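User: two proteins, same treatment. go.

Assistant:
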Amino acid sequence: MGRAVNTPTANDLHSPRSACYSEPFAISRVRPSVYVCNCNGLRKRDVAAAIEAGATRPRDVFTRNQCAVQCARCVCEMREMIQDSRETFAMAAE
């Protein structure tokens, strides 16, 4: 018989234990990847370019890249990238 797989359910996506609803799927924490969004083929450089162009939310990143959110597994990583960019900008401004 096959191993039991701990697959997240719809309830896991909205659980209060996670600040980001897509965190159960945050595979990038285990193994860094060049791709942020596999559904739309967005790479880190695409997200970074959108942030540099003024994106302040994942929705802005998708709009800039002329695509739309599909499964939302990438939203948490995009939020982290946006926050890191803000922190870097704030440090540079000091």
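Protein 2:
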Amino acid sequence: MIIIRYGEIFKTYILGCQCVMLASPEAARFVLVTHSHLFKPTYPKSKEKLIGSSALFFHQGDYHTRIRKLVQTSLSPESIKKLIPHIETQVISSLDSWVSTGQVINAFHELKKVRLFLFLSVLSRLIYIVILLRSLTNEYPKDTH
């Protein structure tokens, strides 16, 4: 492994590809704030194949920013908190239906059903996000990464 070092920023070869490594937060800040136009983040083709070329970190610029904001908004604590009333309603409904049967229930199987329903409910929200992502992907040419 050849390493040419310039303080906290150095060039090396990893897996046969030349790359610039940043060894501290200050170096990263320096590069990203003052010289970001000189660098293009790249990833091994194997990683791109494994994750898919549409993955968020394979993109840059406006497209990356829009997708990141969409994903962050969907996974924010505020968004997750909004799910709590929905989950509570479903659990209370399930409890009421169990009581109304007047029979002994198998809690393991019943809780699996509740979990599946909640999963499908959250999944439907994620599908909505995927539809939004696809509409944004169609909005931008494939060479944005």
